[in-house]
Design goal:
Layout: H1 14-29, H2 33-40, H3 44-51, H4 59-68, H5 75-86, H6 95-103, E1 106-111, H7 122-130, H8 140-149, E2 161-167, H9 169-172, H10 178-191, E3 197-202, E4 216-220, E5 227-230, E6 237-239, H11 242-258, H12 262-277
Parallel strand pairs: 1-2, 2-3
Antiparallel strand pairs: 1-4, 4-5, 5-6
Helix pairs in contact: 1-5, 2-3, 4-5, 7-8, 10-12
Length: about 280
Amino acid sequence: MVPLVRELDPSAGPLQFFGAELRRARAAAGLSQDQLGQRLGYSGAQVGKVETGERAPSQDFAQGCDQAFPEAGGLFGRIYLLARRWDGGYPSWFAEWVDSERRATSLRSWEPLLIPGLLQTADYARAILAADPETAEDQLDELVAARVERQAIFDRPSPPTLWAVLDEAVLHRLIGSRKVMYDQLLHLADTSCRSNITVQIVPAEIGAHAGLLGGFAIANFDNAASTVYMESPDQGQTTEVASVVRRLSLTFDTLRADALPRGASRDLIGKVAEERWATT
């Protein structure tokens, strides 16, 4: 029996365009997905997911494709770079995590520096995005809209649960203006009242703790392996590697144990809003 091959629409988006071109080049070279994966340093399954548009290629993956198919003249690197402007406000390396958020039944998020994107106000998001030297002024509205639109997952009939744990320093870091911070913290406190959203704060008095090395998030699904997103100074990384998921799940549980209870966390958020950021 000949296996079914999923048809791709290259015009559906940058991931599908990249995947269609990759499949075409691989087939022309007479390579299987496993064989190409060996050349790239990825599994055949990962190659398959990129080909079907289910997984966003990393820059390293795109560069590897250009090396594997030199006759393409650097096509895959160009698609990758162009995709950063075609992706509706998301960098291509972040697209896989956005898809994970949409499919997740529950999400766990740790943030030592900023309010999580799923809980940001538009003004707070704008201030963060505008601070990136690579953000063009004409892109800013689109980027802000894309970040806020991610929050629509909580308006679905069956929304995912979110457990967000933040370092107290996040509440004291000036982002934008005093008014932006005041409005953001009130929004955070209000949102934490929703039955499916829990926000906890790790108080400053804890001192050194397990989450100081960086933020991460974990997406859980009904019938699939959990996915982790890890922040970095350059590009975030999304992975399903079981050992990484286990390690960060343990880290999250440790941070949650250090955090204030839900009600006390909400009280602290409101206190910092009024005492530090309220304007007269």
